[in-house]
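Need a sequence for this fold. Nothing fancy.
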């Protein structure tokens, strides 16, 4: 399901040939592809290593620091990657899903 929706997002990224819309659809496609990893990191954080996503945070932060023109086409995707990777680091490192499940049990 997520793979199909991600493929649809990639198709919608390619078709419009309008920069900002294409970037938005690329972000949507990537988010749909990342959904299973987010769910897994929430429920089973011990099966992932947060350090991999931490390097994604560092990578995105360096990309954002290198931006010279502050508009969506330059900062949209790096900012999205920063938020996604930071969320994954927090879910895995601090086992937020497990803590919330214990609190609600």
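Here you go.
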């Amino acid at each position: 399901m997520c793979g199909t929706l991600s493929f649809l997002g990639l198709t919608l990224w390619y078709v419009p040939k309008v920069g900002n819309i294409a970037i938005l659809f690329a972000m949507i496609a990537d988010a749909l592809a990342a959904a299973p990893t987010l769910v897994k990191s929430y429920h089973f954080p011990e099966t992932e290593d947060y350090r991999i996503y931490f390097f994604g945070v560092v990578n995105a932060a360096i990309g954002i620091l290198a931006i010279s023109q502050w508009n969506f086409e330059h900062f949209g995707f790096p900012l999205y990657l920063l938020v996604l990777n930071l969320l994954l680091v927090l879910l895995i490192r601090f086992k937020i899903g497990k803590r919330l499940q214990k609190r609600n049990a």
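For context: Residues 2-104 form one domain.
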